[in-house]
Amino acid sequence: MKIELWSDFACPFCYIGKTRFENALAKFPHKEHVEVIYKAYQLNPNAPKKMTSSPAEAFAKGHGMTVDKAKERFTMFTENAKTVGLEYHYDVIQMTNTFDAHRLAKWANKQNKEPEITARFMKAYFTEGKNLSDVETLVELTKEIGLKGDKAREILNTDTYSDTVKSQITEGRQVGVQGVPFFVLNRKYGVSGAQQEEYFTQVLEKLWEEEKPLETIGDDGNVCTEDKCEI
Questions:
Q1: What is the DSSP code (8-state) at residue 192?
Q2: Quick one: pLDDT at residue 33?
Q3: Which residues contact 222 (CB under 8 A, 6 or more apart)?
Q4: 3-state secondary structure at position 222
Q5: If DSSP codes are grouped into helix, strand and coil, which group holds residue 132?
Q6: Burial bucket for residue 116 (CB in 10 Å: 0-12, 13-18, 19+)
């Protein structure tokens, strides 16, 4: 079973949806047969590398709403996050560009560390108010999950993995991603949004029923193989 997850580190519902999915997967009795692949997506590719206004002002400007409405959205995001044990601190959040963070995540994938770096970047962004476009911040976060800081800095100072990130964003649009989080299941089904844990459980069970091998009942009958026939 292959599940591809398109998400952005700066997407509030991506962190929530990823957590709900992972909670469902942890309880799934056949989880060892599930391959989860993380795919890059950018909600705001034009986001700056450094904020020059308050979080509410930046969000309001980017979404065409008033600052008060932006604050209402922040409250809604924060309350939703609490339902899965996450803490969002929009008073310190830094709405900056995530492209470089995605490039590091693609490198982490080569080290079998993409799940860890994805979780760390999301917590850094939503809970700790870290700037995910700042080189030194990204290097330190990378070191925290056991990867080499010098290599991370080298990647950030070049355009390494830029093509991979762009390719995954394009691929997402081709398979129908119009918003994130977006889960593609066996390239057969698509699940959009931060669905409830119970929904993800049902989806996993459905996929397993479609994929599971036939159960063999009885093994004492006459049988022929490619090499011989036996009684």
A1: E
A2: 95
A3: 229, 230, 231
A4: coil
A5: coil
A6: middle
Q: Find residue 37's DSSP bridge partners.
A: 4
Instruction: Please give the model's pTM, rounded to 2 decimal places.
Output: 0.91
- In this structure, what token pair is assigned to residue 146? 């056991």
**What is the predicted pLDDT for the residue at 211?**
84
Tokens encoding 42: 């950018």
Whole-number pLDDT of residue 154: 98
Q: How far is CA 230 from CA 63, 214, 220, 223, 226, in A?
A: 71, 22, 10, 6, 11
Euclidean distance between CA atoms 145 and 120, whole angstroms: 8
Give the integer Cα–Cα distance in Å for 88 and 92: 9
Q: Which CATH number fits domain 2-211: 1.10.150.20, 2.40.420.20, 3.40.30.10, 1.10.10.10?
A: 3.40.30.10
Omega before residue 181 within 30° of 0, cis: yes
Ordered mean pLDDT values, 10 residues apiece, the chain (231 residues): 97 98 97 97 96 96 96 98 98 97 98 98 98 98 98 98 98 94 95 97 95 61 59 58
- Report d(CA 91, CA 94) in Å as an integer: 9
